Structures are given as structure tokens and as C-alpha cells.
Protein 1
Amino acid sequence: MYGTIARLRVKPGSTAKLSEELAKYPRLKIAGFVTTMLFRMDADADECYLVVAFKDKETYVANARDPKQDERYRRVRALLLADPEWHDGEIVWSERAVILPASFKVSSMG
């Protein structure tokens, strides 16, 4: 997998709008898109880190060059105080936790 970690300086009061904008991405069915997460820092509510993962570098770069992605980026950028600090790279390890529903019961296999 391949992706980016970006440091974002969010305009005061715009974190909810930023979250709403980013929440659209999974529904767009972007080729190679795996996941995205937005972290808001405890020390500064206007500082966030965005993590984005794609299945490989090729799909990541193709998305970055897509004019539709540029439009999406401009909507996000309007909510920021400055350009993001991008840190692109290969994801060398990742694991997902399995979240079971509250109704799930472990049965004894005597």
C-alpha cells in the first residue's frame, strides 16, 4: 500500500466542515482508495493530521493527477490556514482490528 500523512492547520471552527468533506471520499469509489483518517491534536484543536491509503503508488499518483481530485483538494484547502505539509510513502505494515457487534456471543466448543 501507499499513501500520505499530512499536517493540516485548520481555520478555527472548520474542523467539522473538514470532516464532512473528507467523509465524501469513500462514497466516490476512487480507484485504489483504501482508507482515510483525520486526527485532531489534543494540544491544538486547529491542528490535524490526515492519513490516506491507496492499494499502491500507481493508484495514489493517478488520483493525485486527476482533475476531479484537484477540485476536491481545493474544497479542503479552503478550510485550511495554509497548504498542508505532505509526507508521502509506502505503507510497510498495517493491521485492522475486528469489531464484533454487541450481540456477538462466544460459545463453548466442548
Note: The two ends are 41 Å apart (CA to CA).
Protein 2
Amino acid sequence: MNLQEAIEQYGSHPFILTVSEEGPHAGIVELETNGNSLACAIGKSAMENIADNSNISFLWPPLEDNGYSLIVNGIASISDGICTVDVTKSVLHRPGAPTKPGCTADCIRLTNS
């Protein structure tokens, strides 16, 4: 499965997770996809956190009990209140026996295309 297919399955409203020296912030955004980048409007707290630390994550909860969460990590930039994210890693993740060496859980790495 690739990231675009996963987002189509999980929907366009993930949690956005940002962090600064003052602490973490979580919110919900409406996400748009454009190839290997994602874009969304963000609020003041997320914008301030991204100014301190451009590493962000998006999180979609599992669609069913014992299902996978979708986690997308990336590097954010902001222009005119719009956050654009270049994806660095995306994975389907859930607790369970490791599926690959180096993993500590049941995870499936997604491709960007």
C-alpha cells in the first residue's frame, strides 16, 4: 500500500502533532495531498511550534479494534497560514509481535508513490 491509498482509506482529517521547547501540541486538520507533500491550514499554536521545530507528525487512529494507526512524519514549512509537509516516513502501526527486524511492533512501512 502506498501513502495516497492509505490516506484515501483513513480520510482527510488526521491529528497533527507538533512540539516546541514549551511542549507538545495536538490538533485536528483537514489535509490535502499533492504527490509526496501534504498541506493543511493550521492554528496559532501549531504555527508557533513549527517555527521552533519543523518536524511534525500526522496521526489517524485505527479504523477498527486491533487495527492499524496511520502515522506520517515530515518536515513542515509555512506560507500564508498554510502548512506544507514533505513526507519523510509513513507507517501503519499497531501493538503486536514485530513483523520486521528492527521493529518493536506490528508495522508496515508505506511507499510515497
Note: The longest strand covers residues 82-94.
Protein 3
Amino acid sequence: MFPCVGSPLPAGEVLAAWGLTTSVAQPAQRSYLNDMIPSAQRATVLSFHSLLGSAGGIGTQPALGRAADLNGYGFSLLLGGVISACALPFLALSRAQRDPADEATTLVATE
């Protein structure tokens, strides 16, 4: 099943780490967007963000699966990385705006 490893256990560990990472990253991303968007446009922008995420999954996942069928999993993972890297210029443009949401703040416990 996994020619480079003796058992499927490492794949399960990677999958678990990926799930944990995603469960932390998604709320942080939503919080970041909430801080950047004026309240009058927040619902529209967040809905559009969700729509693009769903549409990306609907289109990208089958395409990457087909790429894996034709060229192997390594190629499919590389292609997924290239697609993800396409977001880097947009991240740089967002950071160049120097929005207050880019600065980390200290949380103070209230009693």
C-alpha cells in the first residue's frame, strides 16, 4: 500500500497533524478577515470568501485527483503546492496595506 514505509501509520499521523493545523488556521483566518473588513461590508465579503473556498474545492480537488491518476501522487502534491503558492502575491499585497489587523495584540483576561 505504501511502498516507502512499512505501515500506513505515518500517513495517519500526517493526516492528524494536517487536521489539527487546519482547525487552528481557519478560525485565525476568519478573525483576521473580520478585523480587516469594515462592518458595512463584512457579511458580503465573508460570504464571497466562503463561496470561493467551496468553489475552489469543487473544482480543484477533482482536478488534482485526475492529475494523480495520470501522473502519480507526487505530481499531484506538487501541483497543489504550485496552486497554493499563487496566493502569495495576494498575501504580500494585503500585508503592504499595513492594516491594524496585521499587528498581534495581547489578550487581557477580564474578571
Note: The chain has a mean pLDDT of 82.
Protein 4
Amino acid sequence: MASINITAVIKAKEGLGNQLKEELKKVQVLSQQEEGNIKYDLFQSNENTFIFQEEWATKEALKNHAQAPHFLEYRDRSADLVLDRDVYMLRKVE
């Protein structure tokens, strides 16, 4: 079974990029420790745009991540910081 690849593009509200970045770094560290996580890399495009490149071993691991307490807490803490969020589940083209 192929791994699950996710790209998440998260845009902060104007002037809140640094606050959002701190929240993203917190969730990154804990997510990297989750069972089934292969990769959870954080990138920054500009002051207010962040990109997660994730790879999960299974759909079950991804589902568990989305329900993990630290992820749900991050979503609550960042709700007022985020302007827009686009999440893409990707499959490799061969």
C-alpha cells in the first residue's frame, strides 16, 4: 500500500504570521512523533504563508492524526490566526 501524502497551505491573517508560525512549529514537533508519520515538514513561502509537506504510512495514521489531542488543540489555538487553509491529498503519478 502506498503512503499518503498531504500538502497543506496555511495563510495567516495580516500581521499574525509570526504567531501562526509558533503554533505550526508546536504541532509539527508533536505530529512527527505520531505513529505512522513518515514526514511532517514545515516551509514558509512569505511572511504569512506556510506549507506543510506530510507523509503518512496509512490512511488510519492520517485519520488518527486528525483526531489527536495536540492537533485539535492547535486548530483551536490557531483559529483566529488563519485567513485561509487549503489541504491536498496527493498521489504519485507514474
Note: The longest helix spans residues 17-32.
